[in-house]
Amino acid sequence: MKTAAIIVAAGSGTRAALNAGLPKQYARLGGCSVLAHSLRTFCDHPGVDLVLAVINLEHQAFFDLARQEAASGKLVAPVAGGASRQASVLAGLDALAGQNVDRVLVHDAARPLVSAATIDGVLAALETHPAALAAVPLADTLKRAGEGNLVAATIERAGLWRAQTPQGFRYPELLAAHRRAAMESAAEFTDDAAIAEWAGLVVALVPDSNANSKITTAEDLAMAQSAVAALEPRTGTGFDVHRFAEGDNVWLCGVKIPHSHRLDGHSDADVGLHALTDAILGALGDGDIGQHFPPTDEKWRGAASHLFLADARERVAARGARITNVDVTLLCEAPKVGPHRPEMQRAIAEILKIDVSRVGVKATTTEQLGFTGRREGIAAMASATLLVPA
Predict the structure, then answer these.
(1) CATH number of the CATH domain containing 347
(2) How far apart are the first and last CA of the chain?
(3) pTM for the whole thing?
């Protein structure tokens, strides 16, 4: 199932800009633009196959910089937006025609702190509903203002939610609804879920966080700056070794490779994933793989090492942290790693739910020195860089 994300960034609002005349989606936030944050989150998500930005072509130079900052092969050429948000989304939907897209996520560029968990929730809701949106239940008491800004009434808040993005849809149904609305409705819809409702589609609510609020004012931008500044970079390293034993294949970085021997260990002995798991745990200051998955526990005998790496990823998410880059170096005379490198990178990216451009896999020999040079086993070194709440 192919999923596309449309990032709506065609607005020209400048109320929240740091520089006069600079649209808010291009304001700087933690070293890159607001738009780059939004693009990066969707590009990094393993459930998203391509990302399309809808922009004002007068801002092409600003977008080009944001694209460099997001740095992902999933990001396709942008399309020109329309005079309204509704028209801009329709332009994005039309641009996806012929791409064999099954599902589409629509997200406001000015919501740069959307989480991967929120995207997960919307995609999960689309498994059973034609449409879904991230939303936050209202917690404040609502008042209706009357003349002179005097309270005219108190509104019952039970059952009321504040709509956010991403909003997810089955692509053909949203495209049809948008085209029909453009021709038949005089109303200007403020979000895509409203168009889906107008077209008779059932829309599911997915609980979200206030952190995913939209940047509209300078105060909003300052709060987002504080949230980003509260993340500090941390780097961890890992090292692992496994000896060879009788067998006919090895697991390296999540890939099964035919070989004259296997690696000996309590689990599948994937030396690359073990080193990387320790690197992530090290960056978190959360022990090591032996502490969380002791070799004395029969539960883990023969276990696939992607389970260990996935557990480390969940520990990162639980801390509100984010993986920005990982790198693995395999030390061996054989097997040859080069032919399998792209598959290894993809496997690691899928386990960690990050873009493959953030995964490095390298290999080197030890010039026939030491136990690896004597082909007695394989060693691996790994590093991981995270952004962790201070």
Answers:
(1) 3.30.1330.50
(2) 38
(3) 0.75
